[in-house]
Protein: histidine--tRNA ligase
Amino acid sequence: MVVSCFKRHGAKGLDTPAFELKEMLTEKCGENFGLIYDLKDQGGELLSLRYDLTVPFARYLAMNKLKKMKRYQVGKVWRRESPTIAQGRYREFCQCDFDIAGQFDPMIPDAECLKIICEILSGLQLGDFLIKVNDRRIIDGIFAVCGVPESKFRAICASMDKLDKMSWKDVRHEMVAKKGLAPEVADQIGDYVKCHGGISLVEQMFQDPRLSQNKQALEGLTDLKLLFEYLTLFGISEKISFDLSLARGLDYYTGVIYEAVLLQTAAKAGEESLNVGSVAAGGRYDELVAMFDPKGHKVPCVGLSIGVERIFYIMEQKMKASGEKVRTTETQVFVATPQKNFLQERLKLIAELWDSGIKAEMLYKNNPKLLTQLHYCENMGIPLVVIIGEQEQKEGVIKLRSVPSREEVAIKRENLVAEIQKRLSES
Amino acid sequence: MVVSCFKRHGAKGLDTPAFELKEMLTEKCGENFGLIYDLKDQGGELLSLRYDLTVPFARYLAMNKLKKMKRYQVGKVWRRESPTIAQGRYREFCQCDFDIAGQFDPMIPDAECLKIICEILSGLQLGDFLIKVNDRRIIDGIFAVCGVPESKFRAICASMDKLDKMSWKDVRHEMVAKKGLAPEVADQIGDYVKCHGGISLVEQMFQDPRLSQNKQALEGLTDLKLLFEYLTLFGISEKISFDLSLARGLDYYTGVIYEAVLLQTAAKAGEESLNVGSVAAGGRYDELVAMFDPKGHKVPCVGLSIGVERIFYIMEQKMKASGEKVRTTETQVFVATPQKNFLQERLKLIAELWDSGIKAEMLYKNNPKLLTQLHYCENMGIPLVVIIGEQEQKEGVIKLRSVPSREEVAIKRENLVAEIQKRLSES
Structure:
């Protein structure tokens, strides 16, 4: 589902190695370097395991001197943090990334990234969702007009990023007590981070007497206004919230940032409330490729990442709640016999089904009982059974049984594959 | 292609972590432990990266006390060996594994594994291929009747495994000079390893006066005879060669082993000869799960592994040779305009295409030139272009252009999606 959406948007698949040079990673990941898994020194370069798919993509672009690329990548990443299984958070997890690299007219690729998130989350039917949007330049502008010293921008931004897990009171405490911010500066930030809304909030911020004097903030607001225009054309603006509390933890973002969250429906009695944090996120990182390029050539990029484990966790919980049973295989037809010594006939028949592209199984027994075979189909949710026995063989037919309805019909052997394909295409 | 074949045979997908406990891996991989990548000790258990997907699968079965499972897995594995890019051999590579675990009647799952290899290699159209088959018990029987001391079985087997890269003369030298085997014993082995053929060779080995006295060899030959019977029913026996020189490097095999090789067609003048070794391999490993189980419960297993990189390498070479161009994206429709200030219309239109499941792209520019847009389609192999301009907008139509034929027709705006879908389904 996710990959087919990426392909629908013209991306090509790219695979990069799990290893990166240790120094490449530690330099680029800011406060997160403690989370990196290093390989043991067994000779050769010092290597680490990638902690996301963005840094390797930027390194790949720089190494291959690529100025433009639209790629998707599905791969594992590793972070040495405490796993919280209840939130679908592990030390090894799978990310699905989509990125657009290249110098283009503003906000067109950015809008496409948000469109993709909407298509994927709608397609997965996870319930209602909201994409929070902000811009790093607006955050920096706010910090500047509130009087945060420039040297503290990144540290204060990292505190702000915790607002989805901590209250403002606690975040304010961290800013003041741990990061040495003046309390009155923190309070001014607090007034801003409370704000969230749609395009009207962007207009409102343009009118803010202090912010409108800040060059960076103005650039961010101008882009956001354009972004909202494009999102309206895409028909998704009602899914987007301009949220001044959104910060995103990673250092490499330079412009628009976003994070999709699922909206909780009021939990029914006895139902566990799902709290999985963000299920998709991303943003613009215009400087990262240049950091890997010996000559510092810039390649502006924007991208998104889908959190597979969290989405699986939610889907599992939903299915548990609804009592739905998930099939783990896709087998369409089971080859059965009521008779002893029919292994040869079964093998010939199943090979014919496989060769016709039909998903088929049989039991690996010389003489299985018919009941065992039918039970297997019911347990596994296999919809069709073909039954071959002495009687059928004499008459040149095969019995075709529907597992749900238990109806059986005799089909001429030579018409069997066509009949199965017809039934499968109808269902 | 590969995964859909695995699903056709009723397997469910399984993902295991890239890390395994270091001790779990080093104990199980015999002579290969020098190839394992270890993680740096950063606190917690000592971890290594998996070097295949078989050992983690066996560990998974034992840990979860599973007695039966048919699973496939596509994942990366890592080995610290010298990469030889010319053979598609890297330190990080992707394996596609299919395994059947459980106690079943003999050779039915084994035959299915060989059928799967045939289906995949035929489906990929890599040219003619052959699957070499042997049995570890026959190898051990040969060693026993030739007079190899039992303590040297594994070491001599490891030498034998090099027969696909080295001549018998060099292998014999290694057996005698490095592994201390008596020259006359090596020569007797040499007489056996020359043999390869079909079912008739199995019959011939049954008549071998020495081998037919060896219990292990007899068991192996009995199973191989049954296997050939099933392969004949599957219609693939002519692809199989009983080859007494096949040994397989890994220690964990206990019965049937196999390895698929592509048959070289006589290289045309100027064409590089492709030598990539085996493209698929596997075998039966009945003892591996028990090694991970605290109580030593056995779960017999048989499986196969497809070497993706090698297959990609061959396909690439073939395409280069034939001058075919590979499309890296699947984009079906490009949204273009000959006019300035048509970004809004383009954005609305492309969102409509995406929402209808059509793979569509446009340039991320406010005012791209029409020629640039059409060139992009030709370069990327995009078959259809929709063109919207002032004229078309007035008339409520959209131009649909076929890139290969350059034919254009005007379609009513409301019929556009249906017309595109019709054209795509026809091509």
